[in-house]
Amino acid sequence: MAEALGDLNLSTRKLALVLNGAAGKKDAHANEDKIRAALSPHVREFVSYRVQNGSEIAQAAKRAAREGADVVLALGGDGTQSAVAGALVGSDVIMAVLPGGTFNYFARELGVGETLDAALATLISGQLRRIDVGDVNGRTFLNNASFGVYPEILERREAVYQRWGRSRIAAYWSVLLTLWDMRAPMQLKLTLDGKTGQYRTPLAFAARSAYQLESLGLEGAEAVRSGQMALFLAKGHRPRPLIAAAFRLAFGKVARGQDFELLIADEILIETRQPRRLLAFDGEKERATGPFRLRVQRAALTVIVPAAVSENTVVPVAGATAA
């Protein structure tokens, strides 16, 4: 559910850019110069905050807000955008999105453009909307929160990248290696809107991005647009059927009932036998302690979207992904 707030007047705003200086020093410097040149003529004040790694992005965004920034933006992928959103959620500070990752699902869902130039043009002429985001125990997410084998894939992928370099082939290989080595599925106790059940699955992911669900050929987009949480549970319990399901997902051929079970609820409580688990939020992994309460924070984040976008186009954001 999106709430229109009207036009954006940048000339009265202080704008803060959060930039990861370690992500290719030459590119970072060039991008900062380009962003500053494009936006400075349109804003009251332009400041930038350099960080040395991705873990510092959220703190830099919070600092920018404390120091009076009206708009905070970062160039990066969904993990970067998720960190900024978590720092600004529940406040009046505006978030602007500059896509700089591989999939950029959040930027694509908002319709801000898939290139830096397009996103800068959107920022200059855009309008404001308040959108929903996902939440797990106070941790904001924009595309998905995943439990089980997917966070393990991300961990394996880092090791593969370190040995063979970053490539799509290396990413796919990490998926196959992790699924093939999988031993036992998770035992979950789920409470959905007050109803409790026991489930056995190797993968659970909570989806809050209608755009992403539709791009992957998955159901649940309308429930997400209505402000609910969509929880997918993988049905395969052994490596071979899981690998087959992964290939079907890659080609948009997954089938509800055959490959996954879809549960829809306003709020979900997940309890596991091992309360401390590795989770993935928007493609970034971290350890967290359960039980895990998943909910939707309504109209909790103010973002900039294209002026021409209709209210029905911008949907509640945060959900499932292959990234």
From TrEMBL:
Domain DAGKc: 10-140
Recorded GO MF terms: kinase activity
UniProt keyword annotations, A-Z: Kinase, Transferase
SMART domains: DAGKc
Keyword Transferase on entry: yes
Pfam families the UniProt entry points to: DAGK_cat
Protein name: Diacylglycerol kinase
Organism: Cypionkella aquatica
